[in-house]
Amino acid sequence: MLKSLLGYQSGGGSVSEDHMRRKLYGNAVTAALQSNFPLLVKLSEELLDKWLSYPETQHVPLSQHVLGFALKSVTRMTLGSTFEEEQEVIHFQKIHGTVWSEIGKGFLDGSLDKNATRKKQYQNALMQLESNLKKIIKERKGRSFSQHVFIDSLMQGNLNEQQILEDSMIFSLAGCIITAKLCTWAICFLTTSEEIQKKLYKEIDQVFGKGPITSEKIEQLRYCRQVLCETVRTARLTPVSARLQDIEGKVGPFVIPKETLVLYALGVVLQDPSTWPSPHKFDPDRFDDESVIKVFSSLGFSGTWKCPELRFAYTVATVLVSVLVRRLRLLAVEGQVFEMKYELVTSTREEAWITVSKRH
Prior knowledge:
Number of helices: 13
Shape: globular
Distance between the termini: 47 Å
Number of strands: 9
Strand content: 5-15%
Strand order of the largest sheet: 1-9-6
Structural class: mainly alpha
Coiled coil: 112-139
Keywords: Coiled coil, Heme, Iron, Metal-binding, Monooxygenase, Oxidoreductase
């Protein structure tokens, strides 16, 4: 869907070529996570230290802080050392915000084409993002770096420069937002249940003890994965999905031509009471059932190869939540209601405020 909205070719090759390109994209995500796991832990601990420095009564602007964390994580792991500088991240955040806000709203409701000023701002921001990516591609091409990032894997594949630009653009845009909103909603929901936090803390303590958080051990955090799956479901994290029809298809009497953009109303399916009893209740224990996980996986939400950005977000969220819950109790601000704003990725309608207290 993003490629269509950005005016990129969605495939352009044969079915097998498109499949190989998607496989390369998925492998690039895996390699970026593996080679940058210590960096991910470090960035999570930086946010923890920031929150530890606050008095317990201070309200924390959760959405703002987590978006900053996600932008740092995604840019460093996707595009490399250029984004070690704070100013580069701030600049990226500004133009990223302009592009994403119009993708999430302006395109879908048609308002972008009706406002020449907004459209020009969007086009300028998109050109800046593409220019930055082209510069990074040129700098890293044919060179060896100590930090292997997402874009390096794309350049090692059999892709031309336009394909590398498109795929790195898609991941930079979607990866940041999906990661930020998954982490934000997970923490929001955790503040509403002391029992769920206790259960999660117990699992984190059992798996890591006083040792470091490692990529090998996070695979053992079964309840944490249940918390994140239930976060995706309850928040309806991506209420709409889409894909281009590879071949001509049929639904009942209707023919779907090849290259038709097919929309899936996932937000409706995720709240269907016939599949999810008490659908509005945040209940990670429902994912203790293998049959429920299979239903969830069939929708593309399991964090597998079907959505590499979500797979990336699950890993980042697992590390961040583990780092935070290990040392902090996450508490709701009295009277705070987390209202949902549905676009391509669901966000909180207003800033989500929380408080934190140290575990003793």
